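#lab-general

N.A. 3:47 PM
ok so I finally got the sequence cleaned up, no stray characters, all 132 residues accounted for. can someone with queue access submit it? mine expired

B.Y. 3:52 PM
send it over

N.A. 3:53 PM
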Amino acid sequence: MGAATAFVAATIACAQQDIKKVLAYSTVSQLGYMFLAIGCGAYTAAIFLMVAHAFFKGLLFLGAGSVIHGLHDEQDLKRMGNLRAYLPITFITFANRLALHRRRPAAVGFWPRATSSTTPGPPTPGCGWSAS
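B.Y. 4:20 PM
back already:
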C-alpha cells in the first residue's frame, strides 16, 4: 500500500501546475515511503524519514511562499521562469536546500531514504523477503 501511495501521489504531482499542489502531492508521496518502511518493519527509519522530510518540506514551502509573494500571488508553474534573476536570495536558498537533499552519502537527505529502503525488518511478504 505504501509503494502504491508513493507512486500514485508522485505521478499526480508531476501533472499539477499549481506550485502548492505539487508540494502537497509530493508530501503524500513521502508518506507512502514512510508507510512502506513501517510495513517492512523499519520503524526507526520511518520516523527518521518523517522528521527529515518535515525539515526539508518546511524549507520548500518557505521558498514557494517567497516565489508566490515575489510574483504577486502567481501560483501557476507555467508562468514562472528565470526566477534566478528576479529572486536571487530565494534562488540561493533553494540551491542550498537542494545540495542538502541530494542523494549523496555525504548529504543529510541521503540517509532517510537509504535507511528506510534497506533496513532489514521481520520477514514481511512484499518487502523483499521470501514468504516460504
